[in-house]
Amino acid sequence: MLVDGEVVAAVAVNTDITENKRHERALEKAVRDRDEMLALVSHDLRNQLTVVTASLALLAMRDGSPDNRDIVDMASSAAKSMMDLIEDLMEVSTLEAGVMAIEPKPESAAHLARTACERFETVASKKSIALVCAAAGALPAVQADARRIHQVFANLISNAIKFSPGGTSIDIGVTHEDGAVRFSVRDEGIGILPEAMPYVFDRFWQARTTDRGSAGLGLAIAKGIVEAHGGRIWVESEPGKGSTFSFTLRVAG
Questions:
Q1: Which residues face 182 on adjacent strands?
Q2: How far apart are CA 160 and CA 170, in angstroms?
Q3: Where are the beta strands (DSSP E) in the chain?
Q4: 3-class SS at 59?
Q5: Considering the entire predicted model, what is its pTM?
Q6: What is the pLDDT along the chain (253 residues), one digit of tens a residue?
Q7: Cα–Cα distance list, 234 to 17, 56, 112, 190, 243 (Å)
Q8: What are 251's strand-pairing partners?
Q9: Helices 146-162 and 218-228, interaxial angle, to 10°?
Q10: Count H helices, E strands: the chain?
Q11: Which residue in 8, 148, 168, 238 has the most C-beta neighbors within 10 A?
Q12: Closest by alpha carbon to 187, among 129, 117, 249?
């Protein structure tokens, strides 16, 4: 039998639980509303930017003078950057909703890595950075959506190039480990501070001491894609000595 004091305490506990649940439901609704609005706005902005890009291309065709060409190129570059940001925002919304569509099938692990290297060789060479692709031994096929995995590589390699000084190298490695294939991107760049390591894959996170020139969504998207494949992604780094980003994919079959 409860005495008066125990009754009051029980009522207080129940009230706290009810209030916490109410706050949780309100927070969940706010997140859903935000993501729905973000998806809607991103879709509309993408449509408008498509018109802007097409108009700039038409303008370039009509007037190819050097002065005009420079202006069109700058505007086109800005439009592309905006389009990339919108695509990233839409990707993040898809990941948050847990509805990312992937179509995995058996793919050559070595081919995935080599293709990623080939796509960034020119960009790396412009900064005098050597891009080295090394596949260790005979590798099994992996279960992967090649287009999505190329997105992962694109984010990891472009980050490595961005934060690496000229005269260094970036190594793309592929190894077979315990029923999975591990892909790694190792650079000799500025590295990551220990206190920042837990937040590297958070969306919108950026290094406070470095102008990253992006919205900080790339690594969050890469993480979502890898996890949608049933793999995992992580980073090892030491300030001033570079970073190694690694992710795994399951062996096909």
A1: 175, 248
A2: 7
A3: 105-108, 130-135, 141-144, 169-177, 180-186, 233-237, 243-250
A4: helix
A5: 0.68
A6: 555 665 556 556 566 677 777 877 876 676 666 666 666 666 677 777 777 777 777 777 776 666 677 777 777 777 776 776 677 666 776 676 666 778 899 999 999 999 999 999 988 999 999 999 987 668 899 999 999 999 899 999 999 999 899 999 999 999 998 889 999 999 999 999 999 898 898 876 665 444 444 556 788 889 989 998 999 999 999 898 899 999 999 999 7
A7: 36, 41, 19, 17, 11
A8: 142
A9: 150
A10: 5, 7
A11: 148
A12: 129
Residue 139: name the closest of 213, 248, 44, 215 by CA: 248
The backbone region for 63, taken as left when phi is positive above 0, alpha when psi lies in -120 to 50, beta otherwise, is beta
**What are the tokens at 16?**
């706290």
3-state secondary structure of 119: helix
C-beta of residue 224 within 8 angstroms of C-beta of residue 99: no
